[in-house]
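B., you asked whether I could sanity-check this one before it goes into the benchmark set. Here's the sequence:
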Amino acid sequence: MGFYSKFRWKWLLAVGACSLSLFTFFSLPATAEDGGALYNTGYDINQGNRYFERQCSRCHGFDAKGNDETGAPDLTGRLRRASTEVGIFNIIREGVPGTAMLPVDADLPDATVWQLVSYIGSLRYDPSTVELDGNADAGVALFRGKGDCGSCHMVHGQGGRLGPDLSRVGENATPEELLTSMTDPHDDVDPRWWTLRITGRDGEARTGFRMGEDSFSVRIMDNDANLWSYPKNEVQSLDRIEQSTMPSYAQTMSESELDDLVAFLFSLRREETR
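And here's what the prediction gave me:
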C-alpha cells in the first residue's frame, strides 16, 4: 500500500470518527435539566405553536385559554400542576392520570416536546414588570361600591355566582384584556357565559347561563343560582344569546376609575408559596 493510500485510509478513519462523534453529540436526547435551554429560540417557539394548534388546541383552545367543560386548564397564566419547564415537560410526556390529559405518543421526539414547552412558556409573562396607572386600593372600593361587581363576581369566596370567579383573574388576563372586558363585555364572550332561553317539556321557558352541554343534555343556571338540566329530546325550543349579561362601564366610569379597577383586578392572583 503506497503512502497516498495509507494517508487516504487514515484520513477516512479520522473523518468517520469525527462524524460519529458529532452525530452522537447532536442526536443525544435533551435531559430534563438542559432541554429548556436548548430549545428556546424563536424557531422553537414557532414549531411548538404549530404542534399545539394541531394536537392541543382541541381541548385547550387556539388561544390556550382552556375549556371549563372539558377541564382543560388555561395555559396563559400560572399553571397549577407545574411551576417549572421540567414539570411541564413531564406532564406533556407522561400525562395526568385520572384526567383527560393523555401522554403524547411515545415516539414523539423530546425535541418536539421541549419546543411545545417553550411555546407554552412564551404565553406567560412576569406581572411584576407591568406598570399600571391605576391604584388597586381605589379599585377595591369601586369594585364593592359604584361598580357593584360583587353582586355577580366572586373574589376569595365572597360575592355572586352569576359571572366568572375573579379570585385569580390577574394570572390569566392582561391589563388590556381586563379593560376590554369592562368597556366592551360583548367582545369574544366565552360560551360558558352565553345566555340560553329554553322551553322544556312542561312548556315553561327559563333563561340562564350555559353551565354545560353535550350531545344529550344541556344545563343552565338562572339568576337565582338554580340549576336546570334538560334532556335535548325534551326541549321544545332553545335560543342562544351569545352576548354577555355584564354591563359596559365605558360611559359610567371615568378613565381613571377604569384604571383603578384594572389595577385591582390585575393584582388578584394566588400568593407565592415560600
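One thing to flag: The longest strand covers residues 205-213. Otherwise nothing jumped out at me.
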